[in-house]
């Protein structure tokens, strides 16, 4: 896996996603996602967990749906951040469902936490996380 350092835009996206979650987290939303498109626009979303596992929505889905609704079609960078009960923030890797969904919008960089804090992060191309996607896009 080829991990790359975050640039200043990536670091800003991580912080904006953290602030988005800080302002909007609730008992039903403890994860935010931020993404930057190929044109440089940024979009954010929250997970929605109504307490039943079968109807929840991931934060990445929410951010991607907002992006798509605005007419954007290509993701450049994607990050998801969780808030825990100790008031700390953690960068989460996207689940398999979100990896597959994001794949429909390109081969974006995904921000991963490689240490104990969100300041210890790197980025990797989505296809390195799903090296054998089920379809023929590549």
Written description of the protein model:
The structure is a single chain. With 138 residues, this protein is α+β, with helices and mostly antiparallel strands. Helix content is 29%, strand content 27%. The protein contains four helices and seven strands, in the order βαββαββαββα. β6 (109-113) and β7 form a beta hairpin. It has helices at residues 8-24, 59-69, 96-103, 126-129; strands at 4-5, 31-37, 42-46, 75-83, 89-92, 109-113, 121-125. Strands 1, 2, 3, 4, 5, 6 and 7 form a seven-stranded mixed β-sheet that branches. The protein is globular and about 35 Å long.
Keywords:
single chain, 7-stranded mixed β-sheet, 138 residues, Cytidine Deaminase, domain 2, globular, 27% strand, alpha+beta
CATH superfamily annotation: Cytidine Deaminase, domain 2
Helix amount: 25-40%
Taking pLDDT < 50 over at least 5 consecutive residues as the criterion, the unreliable ranges are none
From the N-terminal CA to the C-terminal CA, the straight-line distance is: 17 Å
The largest β sheet comes out as: 7 strands, mixed
Mean pLDDT, as a whole number?
Answer: 92
Q: Beta-strand level of the residues, as a percent range?
A: 25-35%
| Overall spatial form | globular
Number of helix segments?
Answer: 4
What is the CATH topology assignment? Cytidine Deaminase, domain 2
CATH class: Alpha Beta
Query: In CATH terms, what is the architecture?
Result: 3-Layer(aba) Sandwich
**Elements, N to C (H/E):** EHEEHEEHEEH
Number of strands: 7
Secondary structure class reads: alpha+beta
Return the domain count. Answer: 1
């Amino acid at each position: 896996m080829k991990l790359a350092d975050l640039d200043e835009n990536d670091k800003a996206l991580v912080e904006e996603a953290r602030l988005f979650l800080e302002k909007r987290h609730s008992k039903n939303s403890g994860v935010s996602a931020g993404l930057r498109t190929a044109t440089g626009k940024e979009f954010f979303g929250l997970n929605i967990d109504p307490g039943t596992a079968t109807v929840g929505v991931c934060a990445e889905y929410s951010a991607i749906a907002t992006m798509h609704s605005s007419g954007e079609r290509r993701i450049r960078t994607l990050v998801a951040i969780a808030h825990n009960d100790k008031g700390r923030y953690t960068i989460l890797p996207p689940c398999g469902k979100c990896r597959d969904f994001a794949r429909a919008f390109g081969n974006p960089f995904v921000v991963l936490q490689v240490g104990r804090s969100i300041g210890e992060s790197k980025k990797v191309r989505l296809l390195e996380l799903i090296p054998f996607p089920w379809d023929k896009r590549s």
